[in-house]
Design a protein that fits this description.
Blueprint lengths: L2 H13 L5 H10 L9 H4 L9 H12 L6 E5 L5 H10 L2 E6 L2 H13 L6 E5 L12 E7 L8 H10 L1 E14 L5 H11 L7 H10 L2 E8 L1 H17 L1 H8 L1 H19 L3 E10 L2
Parallel strand pairs: 1-2, 1-4, 2-3, 4-5
Antiparallel strand pairs: 5-7, 6-7
Length: about 280
């Protein structure tokens, strides 16, 4: 796997992801929401593509001490749900970066719909070559997306570089605990573009090496296993929409891969964690 091929694989994954701008808009319309008067208070119940929804975003925000004076960077921001929620509910300015231009474009359109374009902006960018100057942000956040980014050391170094001294990194990610069958690792890459999954201790070591103090680490593996079972059922409920937009074969591939993914959480081969660290120098 080279960097260019991996970037293409990640983009292809999210260009065909079951949760996308079209799916969000269709769900809003099916629920009778007046799109001309759409607000973030409504949209936030439709656009969260991470584990734990609004409560998980609040946990990151509380840990990081985000307030109306904070400038926040969301690394791998996807459809922009957490970025909009933070701006609306904490009064902060938020910038999101994501590798997939279709997600960035969709995030911008949704943000304009709810009138938050003045405080939330999105850029197509590679997290391994962060486009912002040193010490730009008070807080860097991420939610279950860094698992797609290879070279975790470089990722953490870039996140720390753009964080102000004294600022915080507050993120969650998928973790490898033990994958007994190496074929499963290859299947996870082919189906979900999961690259070089880190362990809990691995992330803490990388953060320390990059000049951070670890403030807290939480093991989320048990709660995520229950959430993932529910998400598999949710994705299966979207079969008709997924087939209509991307074809039956894409749905079959996604369902097969995601069932494997959930099974690896149930067998405790994969896990999840929430990390909070402070840049010291």
């Amino acid at each position: 796997m080279n960097d260019i091929t991996h970037e293409q694989d990640v983009v292809a994954l999210y260009d065909l992801h079951p949760i996308n701008e079209r799916q969000i808009m269709e769900k809003l319309e099916n629920d009778g929401v007046d799109l001309a008067n759409l607000t973030e208070d409504i949209l936030q119940h439709y656009d969260m593509d991470h584990y734990g929804g609004i409560n998980a975003v609040d946990a990151l925000a509380r840990n990081a001490g985000i307030d109306d004076a904070s400038r926040v960077l969301d690394v791998a921001s996807g459809m922009g749900g957490p970025a909009r929620y933070l701006a609306q509910n904490y009064g902060c300015a938020v910038t999101g970066i994501d590798l997939t231009e279709s997600r960035v474009d969709g995030a911008r359109r949704l943000t304009e719909l709810v009138g938050l374009a003045d405080t939330v902006d999105f850029h197509a960018a590679n997290a391994l070559a962060n486009p912002f100057p040193d010490e730009t942000f008070d807080v860097v956040v991420g939610q279950e997306a860094w698992c797609h980014i290879p070279d975790k050391r470089r990722l953490i170094e870039e996140c720390v570089r753009v964080t102000k001294v004294g600022g915080r990194l507050s993120f969650t990610d998928m973790l490898e605990r033990r994958i007994a069958d190496p074929d499963n690792r290859a299947r996870l890459y082919r189906g979900l573009a999961l690259a070089d999954l880190e362990s809990m201790s691995g992330y803490t070591d990388l953060l320390t090496d990059a000049g951070c103090r670890i403030l807290s680490v939480e093991d989320l593996s048990h709660s995520w296993t229950a959430i993932l079972r529910e998400r598999l059922a949710m994705y299966r409920s979207l079969q008709a929409q997924t087939v209509a937009q991307f074809g039956a074969e894409r749905f079959r591939q996604w369902d097969e891969t995601y069932a494997l993914f959930v099974g690896l959480y149930e067998s405790e081969e994969l896990g999840g964690g929430r990390f909070l660290a402070q840049r010291l120098s």
